[in-house]
């Protein structure tokens, strides 16, 4: 349809499409989180196959970062978010904001099956829900913004857009962070993604792989799911101190972002093109 659009224009059109899809999914009766998490990829496919038709060439698909696995980053991408989310619950427990009450089963299975169940949940997230987001954010959008804005601005812009994308599902449906004040939930998730985005994006660019982003995202979400099922709040502040968009998580990702920005300043690494 439009074969000569500038990267920044593509990014703007993509962002508009993904927000339209997000609002549409949010107002569908009995909507679900998986459908919502697939909207960034759906928007990318609309761009590749209909709007720009870049999907007609191998280079259009190669830019998404699917061809490289980034294996050497996998352990880091698994451990860092898991530890950060665990720290948030540990801190909340330490200050008395919650207690740990281990249920008799996990996801309906005996605890002896816990490693297998969690592994299945993790792999499933990497291949479906997390990839549904990351193929759009860090696979499609981030390279466009890097090539038009430079790496630093692109990392923050992608994180901000990612954060704002959560607002429709929080305000228009009852399925996400319904236990928090909706306006505080929106604020916390936007700030959280603002600093999470540069961390995931930094790794995605250096690994030339969107799989590393999906693994990071999955480790974050799975650890949150596991610990949320064991935590019993004793204070309202627990909802804002522990969890995926909590103050502790925000501070941790903020520190990692500062570290990453300092590394960029020493490397003269405004990435103008992606090595796929």
Automatic annotation (TrEMBL):
Keywords: Membrane, Transmembrane, Transmembrane helix. InterPro entries: MmRce1-like, Rce1/LyrA-like_dom. One of its GO terms (molecular function) is endopeptidase activity. One of its GO terms (biological process) is CAAX-box protein maturation. The chain crosses the membrane at residues 12-28, 34-52, 73-100, 154-176, 182-203, 237-256. This is Type II CAAX endopeptidase family protein. Pfam families: Rce1-like. Residues 119-223 form the CAAX prenyl protease 2/Lysostaphin resistance protein A-like domain. Signal peptide: none annotated.
């Amino acid at each position: 349809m439009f074969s000569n659009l500038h990267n920044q224009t593509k990014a703007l059109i993509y962002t508009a499409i993904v927000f339209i899809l997000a609002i549409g999914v949010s107002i569908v009766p009995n909507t679900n989180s998986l459908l919502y998490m697939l909207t960034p990829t759906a928007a990318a496919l609309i761009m590749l196959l209909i709007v720009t038709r870049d999907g007609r060439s191998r280079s259009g698909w190669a830019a998404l970062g699917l061809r490289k696995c980034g294996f050497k980053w996998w352990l880091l991408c698994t451990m860092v978010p898991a530890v950060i989310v665990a720290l948030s619950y540990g801190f909340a427990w330490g200050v008395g904001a919650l207690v740990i009450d281990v249920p008799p089963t996990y996801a309906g299975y005996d605890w002896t099956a816990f490693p297998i169940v969690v592994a299945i949940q993790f792999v499933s997230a990497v291949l479906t829900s997390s990839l549904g987001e990351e193929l759009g954010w860090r696979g499609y959008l981030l390279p466009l913004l890097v090539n038009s804005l430079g790496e630093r601005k692109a990392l923050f812009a992608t994180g901000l857009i990612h954060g704002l994308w959560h607002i429709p599902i929080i305000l228009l449906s009852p399925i996400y962070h319904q236990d928090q004040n909706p306006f505080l939930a929106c604020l916390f998730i936007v700030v959280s993604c603002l600093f999470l985005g540069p961390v995931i994006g930094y790794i995605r660019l250096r690994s030339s792989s969107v799989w590393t982003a999906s693994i990071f995202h999955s480790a974050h979400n799975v650890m949150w799911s596991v610990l949320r099922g064991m935590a019993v709040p004793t204070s309202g502040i627990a909802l804002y101190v522990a969890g995926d968009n909590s103050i502790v998580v925000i501070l941790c990702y903020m520190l990692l972002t500062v570290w990453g920005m300092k590394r960029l300043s020493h490397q003269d690494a405004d990435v103008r093109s992606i090595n796929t």
